[in-house]
User: What shape does this take?
Amino acid sequence: MPFDLNILLVGCGKMGQAMLQGWLERKVENRIYILDPAGLPPEFVDYAPNPVSWYENVAALAAQEPKIDVIVMAVKPQIMADACAALKPLAGANTPLLSIAAGQSIAVFETYFGAGHPVIRAMPNTPSSIGQGVSVCVANPHVTPEQKEQATRLLEAVGHVEWIKDETLMDAVTALSGSGPAYVFLLIEALAGAGEKAGLSRDLAMTLARRTVIGAGALAAHMPDSAASTLRENVTSPGGTTAAALDVLMRDQNGLQSLMDEAVAAAKQRSIDLSGT
Ligand SMILES: NC(=O)c1ccc[n+]([C@@H]2O[C@H](COP(=O)([O-])OP(=O)(O)OC[C@H]3O[C@@H](n4cnc5c(N)ncnc54)[C@H](OP(=O)(O)O)[C@@H]3O)[C@@H](O)[C@H]2O)c1
Assistant: This one.
């Protein structure tokens, strides 16, 4: 489907570059204006001046009288206030704002841009930097269905996209998919550590643990219609080795589920504390 948006990308660091790469590969853009004092990353110079153009500050961008269909905010949360204040004169009343900043509520952007401004808050996770992320989005009532569709397409450039209606769920989302990659990396470490204790060399244990998590993830991706429990049962023979391990991991009181419940609840509470919601 043709998708000719004029996009203003504010902040072209790790996440900004990942999205930019995805947009250019998928040709979703008509024009991409980039605002970032750090300059245009060298790998994108060949795309300039068309469709990508870079501006050091808002004044330089405003001088071009840009036509902007959507503003994507990809700066660090701590400089968001300054970035929004500078942008306000450029943002048309109905130009949707798509923010990927962690912990920045829709209300924060409504304060900067006005209560009736269309705002979409998205929470991507770190695998987005290689196009394998998952983003969860929530919009205020001023965002049109077409603008939601546009936001979906923009975020699909870095992975899978889900929408929720209740912004308060963003704390749980943060605790699951936002922080989740770290839990999986810990699983690799723990698996490797256990392998070492079982007699394997450190290097072999780490290679096996890493490749096992990568392979299991790929298998889950390859069989999207199979429940995780089915995938687990598929590799568990009654009375076999996997069953012996799962008897430990699936204990009622101190198995993996109760530990994960506690971990996600702690992350959710921290997200609530940090965002002040
Ligand atoms: N990294 C992730 O995996 C991830 C995951 C989920 C959400 N996020 C969110 O994504 C946002 C960006 O994170 P990131 O990791 O991409 O950060 P980053 O690599 O530091 O990129 C931010 C970029 O914004 C630039 N910048 C600073 N002030 C600016 C201004 N006033 N106007 C325009 N650009 C400005 C920075 O330039 P300087 O370096 O010169 O300051 C930098 O190039 C954050 O809000 C974060 O919460 C990131």
About this structure: The chain has a mean pLDDT of 94. Strands lie at 5-10, 29-35, 52-55, 70-73, 97-99, 119-123, 133-139, 159-163.
